[in-house]
Amino acid sequence: MFTPRWLKSTKTDSKMKLLLVLLTGVIVGTRTEQQISLEMVSPSANVTHHRNSDYDYEYVSNWPSLDRQLGSVSAVAIDSHGNVVIFHRGSHVWDEGTFDSRNVYLPIDRGPIAEPTLLVLSNQTGALVSEWGANYFYMPHGLTIDRNNSYWLTDVGLHQVFKFDLTVSSTVPVLELGRRFKPGNDLHSFCKPTSVAVLESGDFFVADGYCNGRLMKFSPEGRLILSWGKNSFALTRAYRLPAGPVPESFFAIPHALTYAEDKDLLCVADREQGRVQCFSARNGTFHSMYSHPQIGNRLFSVKYVPLSGGLFYIVNGPQFTGVKPPINGFVLSMSTGNIVGKFFPPNQQMAFSNPHELSVSSDGGQIYVAELSPTTVHKFVLKHQPLEDHQEYHQPVVAKPSLSPVHMIPTGLDEPSAEVSDSLYASSLTVVVVVSSLLATSCLVLCLSRTICFKASRRHRFSSTVENISLRSLRHSEDNQA
Question: In 456-464, which residue ranges form alpha helices assigned H by DSSP?
Fold first, then answer.
């Protein structure tokens, strides 16, 4: 066993030996604790992409099979017949010359997109079933298809929301909200609205959007019932947020909506704050919030599937600040806050670049992801039978949702697993190391204080009262920035 030279030396004072031994113990203990923590939370190239085989998806190549070039695909949805519908921008591109500083759409003289912007595809073959939406839209964004097969569409260039019933007309909407080409923030206007969610009652929500940062609830006839939220996007807000986490009901682009029917919750992808916020669909009361380091600080879309206590399917996007996690699709457990699965193309040539929206079948068996660039749609299928048919999973019992706010998501898993055992073991070991380190530190401080008292009984820890106050202010400042 190696013994340090300073410990062998007879010239070293016994008190100093004791102090150095204790200091070594503290350093080793601290490093051990840090190593355990890093092993538990740091991503590794050797870590499997799927933490739960029940959410293991495979990529379907050569889907869709189209004989044309798509424009930027802004949205994708599944209709009541199981067909996949995409909403694309054709030859129109959103760039720095599309809007002015007041969010007014500039290339109006160019006219609407000439080609059909809505393509209905077979979910099996990807072949074109039907198409519509030519010569109507300017800058497509959101697409929702309700249980009656009505289409709800948003156009950020027109600053409008539309409802189409194809049994009535594919050229004239049955409902039209917002003022054409006129952005606004009053009760009858939108500014680049992004998404719609529809309730069984016919009431619907609009995410409004890039400028206003608010959620609006309407009756089936389009009468405003409720509105809440405030814009917190750094590039467009006109005020300064206090230090610390951004509070609930503040949105940095509410980019996509999903309705958790069994919980009666409206959930929104808070894009530039990398989180999902959920609210009571009845009165807009805040319910819960979800984020994860693997997702990062940009979260483009979320869809809810009522299985296993509630699952969120999420896509993130390119990260511009801080740690830059890969662009992936995620399956996040609503009950635990853990990522239980991922989905992504199998190689770099097909990898996600700018995913914008996704759609998931009700049984979790199929996922479709729309990309702005490259202009495509990705398809993923579950490797085994759909989750609702799996023997370990059952449709959750519908219960009255709790309206008490949930700010912290539990970190445990729904069922015991080897991962849980490892986590508990590591946590226990960490506790032991921490306690040992604290005891050693206490002894070290005691010995130091006695030594200092003997050698310099008149010396104080702080040179003055001002230094003590300054240190407290510094700690307060650091806590606020955390």
Answer: none
